[in-house]
Amino acid sequence: MRSNNRLVVGVENAAARNGFALDTAQRALLERLAVLGADLDRSSLRRSPPRSLYIHGDAGRGKSWLADAFYAELPLAKKTRVHFHGFFDDLHRSIHDRRSERDAVERAIDDITQNTRLLFFDELHVHDSGDARLLTRLLDHVFQRGLIVLATSNYAPDDLLPNPIWHHIFEPGIALIKKHMDVWNLAGPVDYRTVNEEHDHGFAAGTWTTTPARSGAPEQQTRTVVNGRSFAVTSVADGELVATFEQLCSAATSTVEYLDWARSFSRWVITDIPSFSAVDAEAQQRFINLVDVLADAEIAVRFSSRVDLSGFLADASERPDAFRMASRLQPLRTTTRSSC
Predict the structure, then answer these.
(1) Strand blocks (E) in 94-140
(2) pLDDT exceeds cutoff 70 at 157
(3) pLDDT in tens, 82-140
(4) What angle do CA 15, 303, 89 make, to 5 degrees?
(5) For residue 121, what are the β-bridge partners?
(6) 239: DSSP letter
């Protein structure tokens, strides 16, 4: 109980250092996380592992912040935090490296999980049928081995892989979540990203600038290489990547490239962003994924568009899974650049 209290106090102190206090719903979740921490501490004395925990709720409710703070305070050496896009990038790389071996997928999953007792899966969401199959195998693997999973998501388990054409593919994964994990809904009316006035660091320190229409002059280009593939961008210099929306999202790019560039460039400028509905569904999804990656990497981005941010987000609201992107973009400082 003493370590339980220390964990709660540690998270509350972290909130105070960040200039806020937990609301009632967040405090209740913290108490549940503290129970998980105490169960992990005593798990060697138990006949069965403690229950895993799946936390879901609206964007900006503080799920990731609380889980991150809990993870930081948890006095457990064998713990691993993975983000959805980074996890699948690592998993695909490991599968590729082991492609000549039997049970390559199982061995790749072992590569990621073999030295952990707690697997913290942040921002879990499933929109791809291939990822759904891999995630199901991962869940089956870790639960069979008695590992504990802590997951945060904007989706309730039954709402994962929401496309009705493909939803049945992840039903075995949903069943595993419900069997092995307690499901906790962090409800509440406030999106704290939109009311937090501290935008001096990380992704929230970025800007959204409204620019006039381009004159039609040709855009300068250079090329950058990821895993042997060459991609056109506007410029790369001194740790800064400058690229147009078309180069990043209309071209055949993926989160593999976004993750690589996020590791290589600490400053980003994304230009010529059109209205959300002006591009096809694949480009829309790439932009949503790109914002995910940049927000997780805490990179302050200068976005430049002919559309003001409120209009862009209103347009994007027609897409059911764009709410997470909207929550992350809303706190950006907005400016208007006049033509000369």
Answers:
(1) 118-122
(2) yes
(3) 887 778 888 888 888 888 888 888 888 888 888 899 999 988 888 888 889 989 999 99
(4) 70
(5) 82, 151
(6) T
Classify strands 222-226 and 229-233 as parallel, antiparallel or unpaired. antiparallel
Identity of residue 303:
F
**Residue 205 DSSP label:** G
Cα(first)–Cα(last) distance of the chain, in Å? Answer: 65
**SS3 track for 40-99:** HHHHHHCCCCCCEEEEECCCCCCHHHHHHHHHHHCCCCCEEEEEHHHHHHHHHHHHHHCC
Task: Provide the pLDDT for residue 173.
Answer: 96
Exposed/middle/buried for 279, CB within 10 Å: 0-12, 13-18, 19+? middle
Q: Is 128 exposed, middle or buried (0-12, 13-18, 19+ CB in 10 A)?
A: middle
Report helix angle 129-144 to 84-97, nearest 10.
80
* Region 2-185: CATH code: 3.40.50.300
Find tokens 């961008």 and name the residue. 233
**Dist. CA 279–CA 335, nearest whole Å:** 24
Looking at the DSSP assignment, which residues form a beta bridge with residue 181? 52
> What integer pLDDT is reported at residue 340 of this predicted model?
46
| Residue bearing tokens 């907005």 | 334
pTM of the model: 0.77
User: Contacts by 24-29 with C-beta closer than 8 Å and gap 24+?
Assistant: 25/61, 25/186, 25/187, 25/188, 26/61, 26/62, 26/66, 26/186, 26/188, 29/55, 29/66, 29/184, 29/186
Spatial separation of the C-alpha atoms in residues 243 and 249, rounded to whole Å: 10
Q: Please list, residue by residue across 31-67, b when 16 or more beta carbons sit within 10 angstroms of its beta carbon and e when fewer do.
A: eebbbbbbbbbebeeeeebbebbbbbbbbbbbbbbbb
Fold of 197-336: Rossmann fold (3.40.50)
Q: Are 273 and 303 in contact (CB under 8 A)?
A: yes
Listed by start position, the domains of the chain span: 2-185, 197-336
Tokens 């050496």 locate to 77
- CA-to-CA distance for 231 and 257, rounded, in angstroms? 9
**Distance between CA atoms of residues 244 and 233, nearest Å:** 7
